[in-house]
Structures
1.
Amino acid sequence: MPPAPEPTRRQRILRCVRNPLYTAQLVFRPSRPGRVEDPSVGRLQLWRTLLGIAAWVWLAVTYGLVSDEGDVKGALSDRFSQSWISVLVLICTFPVVVGAFVVAAQGEQRRLYLRRALRSLGSIGALMGAMATFPLAMAPDPVTKGFRDFIGLPGKIVLGLMCLWSAGFALYGIGLALVHVLRTADIHELVPPSLAIVLSWELALIDLITGAYPGVPLLARALFIMGAPATVTALSWWEMHRLRGHGLTLRQALRP
């Protein structure tokens, strides 16, 4: 069979309009040509994510955090809030870690990494823009309410459709942003594991300060909170070790 023809630009745009999940993949998945991908690391990251979800479900059921339908909805809402907080912390950590990486680079490497970072910045802007549609459509403050009154019924219908599209894009995008660490592999393969280590310990510190999972015994809570960054750190170091086998070291990344 002959290969399927490449979709035209118009067809790709229409697909993005129809399918927010497809658009999220384009925005949040790394796509730099020549990027080193290790299937073993990808599979292990998937298993780590599944085991993390299973551990959270076990914790919620074992210690009575979920006992009826209302508790399930509340737990899912809390889980989404935690994921959104993780993305916000990642966005705040991004300029620090990436900025240090760029500053440490020499010569042409520095300008190259700055250009590559534009894709990550674009994904941040897309996610924040999608989340901004919800207060614009539903916030009760006088400014947004006046805007909705100004656009009338046709505008409200368009705004509602935008919210539905943004919901799919944002929900899927939050997951992709965390898995692919804001597509920072487009900058360099060593940036995602480095950023993941910093992010995981920041989130553990936030959980300790805010007293997350108050209904769980102290020992189980400590193991759950500290187990996540310990696992992420071990996986990230192993990923860096695998990348060294491809000749990707920190010294090679920073020197032209």
2.
Amino acid sequence: MSTLLTIPGIMSDVRTWSAVVKNLNLGGVTLHNADLQRDATIEEMAARALSDTQGDLIVLAHSMGGRVGIEMARQAPERIRAIVLANTNTDGLGPDEAAHRGARIAQANEDMAAYARNWVPKVISSRSLEEADLVAQIVAMVEDCPPKVHEQQNRALLVRPDALDGLQYLASPVLLVTGSDDHMSTEASNNDVARRVQDAEVRIVEGAGHLLPFEEPQQLASVILDWLSDKGMGRDLRHSRVRGM
């Protein structure tokens, strides 16, 4: 049976996918959440996720986690049965990116709580911003990220592998899903990725931003379930066993 592997994004943890997984109603599925807070490179994060699991994987990856998922496919393509890339960007290093990430690192090292309160409104939709409980939930998760982990993850992104090159290893079905208000992972950029992959579909969730798994977990779960059913994998997940999280 396949393991359902969830991969969070930067400054994130198991909370990223918890509501989505709950809404999938998969019953006795084997779940594993990747830990991206222990390694210094995307390659090492991918290797750890592979070594911490066994057998075939159905991957749910968000943002930076999508880059880890693509790298997993490069390292062990035979293990990826299907992959969902939510709010994933595949761009190379921008000309001013090192300076921008350096500034973010300095701000977070000075005051992580203030950094969290400033960052969250920039990455969710205006509709989500009106939901105080949702905003507080996301801010709390970011505040819980140690500044040294935030720095390590940003430095990992500065030396990230070429995600566009990595797309050639995605031989299994790929679902590219993003929010209509996500300015970092747009419908156009996802369509460009889909053209480079053997079996890919693009779905857009209206009214959501870059933190789609938090903003619209029910809609995202529905999109994923429909896609898995179309690929003949929904039933297999429902009949597998829980081994751990």
3.
Amino acid sequence: MGTVFSFDVRGGEPAAVRTALEEAVAQLHRVDEVFSTYREDSQISRLARGELTVEECDPEVAEVLDLCAEAERVSDGWFSSTYEGRLDPTGIVKGWSTERVARRLAAAGATGVSVNGGGDVQLFGAPGTHRPWRVGVSDPLRPGSLAAVVSAAGVDELSVATSGTAERGAHIVDPRTGRSAVTDLVAVTVVGPHLTWVDAWATAAFAMGSREALTWLESLPDIEALLITAGDEVRCTGGLAQRLG
């Protein structure tokens, strides 16, 4: 997927967890083979060219396309599964695949799971007794500094995803124009239970701009967010403070 994945897994029966970890890594490689838009022979590339039907692809392709359709509906079109008129569901694939392998590790008996897919994190359980997972959110205007620290205290699952221009430049597209999104934002961090959705909502919110994005994010159940503008203004959803620490 053109990025780095890292695993932090605590507890559980060692052999079972090790097997689940090997399966998780293999699963991520398989996702890349199926969904990569850079591979001419991937199923998603062949589907985009009309060489395959959805029914001829792996079942996961239909699952991801259904998730994309739901994300487009909930975001009123600010999330899109196309790029330059071509099928491109990668905006949801990374979050979906990261959450899926994290769940596999938790189901194998691990008591604490943290899977980081290119800076977007899915958490389950805890790293230790009375010690929750904590995720630092980079400050896009002050390299090397943190804008906030998100805590998973009191919940069994949590995810954190950030979209912005600090790391990869202007790579987020405004689906209504087909060009790079030009907004007052430099970063949007979204927090919620499921990385599949949190990752998609961060992308959609960035394309919207701070005012519309904050109103929309406030309307989503179990979602909190931190928005940072180019003018160094910080805007937060009402319940975010409960997740910081």
